[in-house]
Amino acid sequence: xxxxxxxxxxxxxxxxxxxxxxxxxxxxxxxxxxxxxxxxxxxxxxxxxxxxxxxxxxxxxxxxxxxxxxxxxxxxxxxxxxxxxxxxxxxxxxxxxxxxxxxxxxxxxxxxxxxxxxxxxxxxxxxxxxxxxxxxxxxxxxxxxxxxxxxxxxxxxxxxxxxxxxx
Length: 167
Hints:
Layout: H1 2-20, H2 26-53, E1 58-60, E2 66-68, E3 76-77, H3 82-96, H4 105-112, H5 120-139, E4 143-146, E5 149-152, E6 158-160
């Protein structure tokens, strides 16, 4: 990652040197804008990669297929746990929307078991059991209970990526 950052710095230096040149054609200016955009995207990828490596970050597949809990060395698969995948995805989507509003038990039931008709207490028990299972699997400190529902701890960095950490 340090080598990538060094390459980025050299590319930005070359752009700055070119910008100082008074004689630039329309084609050169267009190429510079394209390269600056690419370098900005590359910089964002480098920042994301650094966050993924951080042991304090919750790293999650965008579809909830797996996660690496803060402090964990390896990923936990949810590939055979579809309802847990859907719940984790709902938590991550809520966080991605920059919302610190909790998901209600009814909302979690609808996300985890879409289209199923479940009577009141049975539905609540499903959600409570699923939350307890996710917590036992490593998300104990990450899933927070509020009066009106559950959410991912706002103080925990969350990265959604299809690439497993360490892959």
